[in-house]
């Protein structure tokens, strides 16, 4: 499970924008280590969150963001904790270490060698739009080095044993052989008939929950590049976006004042307030570039907290304010009829499929216990047995239909064990574990060092997470969020 956990950590996804920072004012927003922190300071550290992704500093991002919920906020406070604790431990990186780290970063390399032109290009594209300089980027790289040094200290006494290494390698690389029987929902759908009376009855049962989608309308101020037939050169475009980003951020900060009014703030900077048409959560407004982030942001807004975060798009930035909410209304029978008919057919088909799958599974199980092979038992039960290609976690088989469900079920079975009927998006599968092949000893010898590195990295991550939790608790963080 170590490798699965590591993969899950690596696959942390990038909806890291949920934050409480939209609930704070413009002045003193928090206290940490007895010192006051301003909104502007948090905004600046928060922008480094996105810069981490551009520079490929994913370990720093994952380690400080912790989790998807409130990821950017966690990144802000944990960055401050990391700096403070590194100073206490006297492990702050030297200038030479920073230079070496920059030259070793893949994002600044061409064919494995440091490329100063890439450094200059990325500096223009990634820094200027965020109001950063090279010093800000180097400070972020120092944080990455601080993180590595602390993890090295924490993991200095942690070394996986031979048995742990062997078990980890087996979990990832040992091949599994399985067979499967499939049942397809389409085979049952064709036989299901649904009457108008059945649909009307279902409508009466569910009509309290059958509603239209909620609609929103927002006012917005756009800080975007003008539409032109001739696109700007990368450097000019980056500079223009940087200027727009600062304008949007300043506007957003001004809107956090208690008595701020959108039209008045816009008038002061010569900006125009516009309004979108009604839109749903899954249909972002065209006026905001069809941005899913815009819709997501809009549906977080309330009458008490009507002002949204700055929304970033390819053309620039938007600051939005909730204008109206159209609450869901009940669907009429005619509006719901098609969906209810499909739901009813699916429900009845799944019920018939599940009954058949249980019947087949029980027959196969009884025949296997009586001495038959899985293939013979499946055939006798009226099903078609199918060999699934041998797989391991390091070498999965993704081509066969329902491969994910089959491999997950097989991984939890013992040799000679038959699974229950497992639902799939289009039916059900019954899996039989034929065998687990011996590990390749030569491959284990060749991979042992890599496995040890992975396990050590995993253990260091766990230790760092616990250390950070304790050090953040000791930092005396107090926030001044509204609402």
Write a brief caption for the model.
The protein has 17 helices and 13 strands.
Layout of SSEs?
Blueprint: H1 2-10, E1 28-32, E2 35-38, H2 39-55, H3 58-65, H4 71-89, H5 95-104, E3 109-110, E4 113-114, H6 116-127, H7 134-154, H8 162-173, E5 176-184, H9 185-189, H10 196-206, E6 215-224, H11 234-254, H12 262-268, E7 273-275, H13 292-298, E8 307-313, E9 316-326, H14 333-369, H15 374-380, E10 385-391, H16 403-411, E11 422-424, E12 427-436, H17 441-474, E13 478-479
Antiparallel strand pairs: 1-2, 1-13, 3-4, 5-10, 5-12, 6-7, 6-9, 8-9, 11-12
Helix pairs in contact: 2-4, 4-7, 5-7, 6-11, 7-17, 8-17, 10-14, 14-15
Would you mind describing this structure in some detail?
By secondary structure, this protein is of the alpha+beta class. It has 3 domains: about 1-160 and about 445-480, Triger factor/SurA peptide-binding fold; about 175-205 and about 335-435, Roll (Chitinase A, domain 3), CATH 3.10.50; about 215-325, Chitinase A, domain 3 (Roll). About 50% of the residues lie in helices and about 15% in strands. It is built from 17 helices and 13 strands. It has helices at about 1-10, 40-55, 60-65, 70-90, 95-105, 115-125, 135-155, 160-175, 185-190, 195-205, 235-255, 260-270, 290-300, 335-370, 375-380, 405-410, 440-475, and strands at about 30, 35-40, 110, 115, 175-185, 215-225, 275, 305-315, 315-325, 385-390, 420-425, 425-435, 480. The strands form 4 sheets. It has a 4-stranded antiparallel sheet, sandwiched between helices. A 4-stranded antiparallel sheet has the order 7-6-9-8. Strand 11 and strand 12 (about 425-435) form a beta hairpin. Helix 6 (about 115-125) runs parallel beside helix 11 (about 235-255), helix 7 crosses helix 17 (about 440-475) and helix 8 (about 160-175) packs across helix 17. It starts with a helix and ends with a strand.
């Amino acid at each position: 499970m170590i490798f699965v956990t590591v993969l899950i950590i690596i696959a942390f996804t990038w909806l890291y924008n949920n934050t409480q920072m939209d609930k704070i004012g413009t002045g003193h927003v928090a206290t940490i280590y007895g010192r006051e922190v301003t909104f502007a300071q948090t905004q600046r550290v928060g922008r480094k969150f996105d810069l981490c992704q551009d520079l490929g500093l994913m370990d720093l991002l994952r380690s400080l963001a912790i989790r998807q919920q409130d990821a950017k906020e966690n990144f802000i406070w944990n960055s401050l904790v990391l700096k403070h604790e590194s100073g206490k431990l006297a492990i702050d990186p030297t200038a030479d270490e920073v230079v070496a780290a920059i030259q070793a970063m893949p994002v600044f390399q061409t064919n494995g060698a440091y490329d100063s032109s890439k450094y200059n290009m990325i500096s223009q594209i990634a820094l200027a739009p965020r109001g950063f300089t090279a010093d800000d980027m180097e400070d972020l790289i120092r944080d990455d080095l601080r993180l590595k040094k602390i993890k090295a200290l924490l993991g200095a006494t942690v070394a996986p044993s031979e048995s742990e290494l062997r078990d980890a390698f087996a979990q990832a690389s040992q091949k599994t052989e399985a067979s499967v029987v499939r049942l397809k929902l389409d085979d049952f759908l064709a036989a299901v008939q649904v009457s108008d009376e059945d649909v009307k009855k279902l409508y009466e049962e569910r009509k309290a929950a059958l509603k239209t989608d909620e609609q929103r309308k927002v006012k917005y101020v756009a800080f975007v590049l003008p539409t032109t037939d001739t696109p700007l050169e990368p450097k000019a475009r980056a500079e223009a976006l940087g200027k727009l980003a600062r304008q949007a951020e300043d506007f957003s900060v001004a809107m956090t004042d208690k008595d701020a009014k959108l039209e008045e703030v816009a008038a002061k900077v010569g900006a125009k307030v516009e309004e979108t048409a009604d839109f749903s959560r899954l249909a972002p407004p065209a006026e905001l570039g069809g941005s899913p982030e815009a819709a997501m942001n809009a549906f977080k807004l309330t009458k008490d907290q009507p002002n949204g975060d700055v929304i970033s798009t390819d053309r620039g930035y938007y600051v939005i304010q909730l204008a109206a909410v159209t609450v869901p209304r009940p669907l009429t029978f005619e509006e719901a009829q098609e969906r209810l008919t499909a739901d009813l057919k699916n429900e009845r088909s799944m019920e018939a499929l599940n009954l058949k799958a249980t019947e087949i599974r029980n027959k196969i199980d009884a025949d296997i216990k009586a001495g038959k092979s899985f293939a013979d038992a499946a055939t006798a039960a009226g099903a078609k047995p199918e060999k699934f290609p041998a797989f391991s976690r390091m070498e999965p088989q993704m081509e066969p239909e329902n491969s994910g469900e089959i491999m997950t079920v097989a991984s939890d079975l013992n040799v000679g064990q038959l699974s229950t009927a497992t639902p799939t998006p289009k039916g059900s599968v019954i899996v039989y574990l034929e065998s687990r092949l011996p590990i390749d000893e030569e491959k284990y010898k060749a991979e042992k060092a890599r496995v040890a590195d992975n396990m050590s990295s995993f253990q260091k991550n766990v230790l760092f997470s616990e250390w950070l939790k304790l050090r953040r608790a000791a930092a005396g963080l107090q926030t001044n969020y509204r609402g």
